[in-house]
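Work Package 3 (structural annotation) set out to generate three-dimensional models for the target panel prioritized at the project kickoff. During this period the team completed the workflow that converts sequence records into discrete structure tokens, so that structures can be stored uniformly alongside our sequence database. As a representative example, we reproduce one entry of 97 residues exactly as it appears in the project archive.
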Amino acid sequence: MGKSLGELVRLARENRGLSASQMATMLGIKGHAYRRYERDEVPFRADTLIEIAGYLEMGLDDLVDNTKAKKPGKKIRHFTVTGEPQTIIIEIGGGNE
């Protein structure tokens, strides 16, 4: 049986080297709220899923494709959240470093 959407998002996030807390910060939500998405306790909003895919540098089709979510991608080495409105700066590393 295939993986749930929450599991696929978790796999993709982990393969990019991000913690759930870091992703929550990037989305501007609390960590426990984000983890509820990954545990499939609440459905993803379309705009939230699009935003997650953007931060992970994946298309929505890749994010929900079980084979592609598992593949390692470029690791997110550092991100900073600053200012009002919130600005997110992400530094991407190469391959499987």
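Residues 5-15 form the longest helix (11 residues).
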